[in-house]
Amino acid sequence: MSTSPVVIEVTRGPVVESRHEGAAAIVKPDGTVVESWGDIDARILPRSANKPIQAMAFVESGAVEKFGLGDEHIALACASHNGEKRHVETVRAWLNRVGLSEADLECGTHPPRLPATLEALIRENAQPTPAFNNCSGKHSGFLSTAVAYGEPTRGYIKYDHPVQRRLRAVMTDLCGSNADDFAYGTDGCGIPTLATPLKLLARAMANMAEPSRLSNRHAEAAGRIRKAMNAEPFMVAGTGRFCTRVNGALPGVVQVKTGAEAVFCGMLPTLGLGIALKMWDGAGRASEVAMATLLAHLGVLPAERREELLHPPVKNVVGLLVGELRPARSWLG
User: Fold this and answer.
1) Which residue range(s) make up the domain with 167?
2) Whether 316 contacts 322, CB under 8 Å
3) CA 213, CA 232: separation in Å to the nearest integer?
4) pLDDT tens-place values along the chain, 333 residues long
5) 47 near 198, Cβ under 8 Å?
6) What is the pTM of this model?
7) Most-buried pick from 155, 160, 281, 312 (CB within 10 A)?
8) How far apart (Å, rounded) are the C-alpha atoms in residues 328 and 320?
9) What is d(CA 182, CA 196) in angstroms, rounded to the nearest whole number?
10) What is the C-alpha separation between 281 and 21, in angstroms, rounded?
11) What SS3 class is residue 325?
12) Cα separation, 235 vs 298, whole angstroms
């Protein structure tokens, strides 16, 4: 195991202008650390990177069958989406099937992050609604779970609500440590985010990738979530996004999910491994290159994808190529 950190460089011309440092762990389902860099015992807030884990309780509740849902809804439950038309319309139709509406979402509202979608709203003189929130799919999954179990929907984001208690129970089973003992903060969409040792987050992803150690119920749900993320990659993120590109390109091989403040997780079912990484400065641009580097290091990133993902360009405002992001030689050589 390496104590040297993950390092991603940003160049401008021949000069390294910025350096992003972080930690990463590649772990087996039994908790064996295969490789690591930096402080993997550090407790990090997973933010949205653990949405596939949070979707487990939704799939296990029977809500998918009860309300006639499909892969697009499971993928959307794992999503940090762009708020594009298909995302928003699917959330609205989904809530209608459950007998609810956007008014029941407790995630709040923010403008869509894709400029073209925001511009379309402005042209229509329309306002964003909670369905545009990048977490609205996850919250629709929470609401569907509560309805499936006959629980109150109001307050489903609170730490002691049955919806959130189930998430901690799933996390306990997957990471091998009692998630009720984890400190927690409040995520951007209002739910608790659990302070999880990085290596345990990677272990949880490994158990989703290769769930033979889990109960049949957990194993089936993990398989359905992995399948949905590959089958409906657009729903996981959206146009041009790293998660959509990778999940769409590597069906059955890789499922990745980003989170705020430069957290990234990955499931590698063909290798039976999980990945978790965190860039300490919160730079999402660096976390994408770091995840791509680890996928290439493990031999699952196709050669034709490596240049675009390992060396994304830095362009100025007129579109001139002025530099790139890249893994530092000091990290993996």
Assistant:
1) 24-282
2) yes
3) 27
4) 678 999 999 999 999 999 999 999 999 999 999 999 999 999 999 999 999 999 999 999 999 999 999 999 999 999 999 999 999 999 999 999 999 999 999 999 999 888 888 898 899 998 999 999 999 999 999 999 999 999 999 999 999 999 999 999 999 999 999 999 999 999 999 999 999 999 999 999 999 999 999 999 999 999 999 999 999 999 999 999 999 999 999 999 999 999 999 999 999 999 999 999 999 999 999 999 999 999 999 999 999 999 999 999 999 999 999 999 999 999 986
5) no
6) 0.96
7) 312
8) 23
9) 7
10) 7
11) strand
12) 26
Domain CATH for 171: 3.40.710
| Residue type (1 letter), 140 | S
Is residue 233 domain-resident? yes
Number of domains forming the structure of the chain: 1
Contact 94, 114 (CB under 8 A): no
CB 277 within 8 A of CB 22: yes
Quick one: which H or E segment has residue 276? strand 273-279
The first and second tokens of residue 105, run together, are: 């979402």
Taking the CA atoms of 231, 235, 238 and 244 in sequence, report the sign of the dihedral they define: negative
Taking only Cα atoms into account, the Rg of the chain, rounded to an integer number of angstroms, comes to 19
Distance separating alpha carbons of residues 289 and 294, to the nearest angstrom: 9
Does residue 322 fall inside a structural domain?
Answer: no
Quote the CA–CA distance of 76 and 80 in Å, as a whole number: 8
Residue 4 contacts by C-beta under 8 Å, 6 or more apart in sequence?
A: 37, 38, 330, 331
- Give φ, ψ of 187 to 5 degrees: -70, 170
189 assigned to some structural domain: yes
Is 230 contained in some domain? yes
